[in-house]
Write a structure and sequence with these properties.
The protein is 30% helix and 19% strand.
């Protein structure tokens, strides 16, 4: 019996089908289609990284949201963290936002609420905050395609907007991301919440008295 036959006989057909499905799923596509034509590089340290949101193929003009350019010496951007940041935003556009102040997922959800069809979050620009990175979405699941950009690309797009409309295309296939789970870098505020949570758990454990195991407690 061949290796392939053994896999199928042993119930490996489902695994083979899953592998075939993953093979058909491609990485996302991100392009500028006006005024210039350019296809951006999908890679950590490249032009953009992981995406979240639904399977989509959208093409729309870009609209900047409360950017801090040039960036300040220390972290200060809160671009896209508040509804007020979207005052004057054009519905049907792709939102260009800057990292900082809240999770990129929260920014993307706010952008969707303002009528955006796509979201771009570029790194803030200080030392150590320039590359296209795997930003954490901290429990927020965007409802529109969302890409994380390098500071260089984000600031380049913002500069291009000062000369006229910029049209971009975002194509996503969530099966690609699902087949390649990635770790991410939380915002400092998220790290603080995690540390506080660990501290509270530790304090609770110290306060428990040794002895007989407690009875089962059913959830409310």
């Amino acid at each position: 019996m061949t290796i392939l036959s053994r896999l199928i006989a042993g119930g490996g057909a489902l695994a083979l089908a899953a592998c075939a499905s993953a093979a058909l799923a491609g990485p996302p596509t991100f392009q500028q289609i006006g005024p210039n034509v350019r296809t951006y590089v999908f890679a950590v340290g490249g032009d953009y990284t992981q995406y979240f949101g639904p399977i989509a193929d959208v093409a729309a003009t870009l609209d900047a949201v409360a950017l801090t350019l040039p960036p300040t010496a220390t972290m200060s951007s809160t671009s896209g963290c508040a509804a007020a940041d979207f005052a004057g935003f054009t519905p049907g556009s792709i939102a260009l936002m800057q990292r900082g102040g809240c999770s990129p997922g929260e920014k993307a959800i706010n952008a969707a609420a303002a009528g955006a069809v796509g979201a771009l979050v570029f790194n803030e620009g200080q030392i150590g905050r320039t590359e296209a990175a795997l930003f954490s979405y901290a429990g927020f699941l965007p409802t529109i395609p969302t890409f994380n950009l390098s500071f260089a690309l984000g600031s380049e797009l913002a500069t291009a907007l000062s000369s006229g409309p910029v049209t971009l295309r975002m194509v996503t296939d969530e099966a690609y991301f699902a087949a390649r789970p990635l770790s991410a870098v939380p915002e400092p505020a998220v790290w603080s919440m995690m540390i506080c949570g660990f501290a509270l758990v530790g304090a609770g454990l110290r306060r428990r008295r040794p002895g007989r195991a407690p009875a089962e407690v059913r959830p409310a």
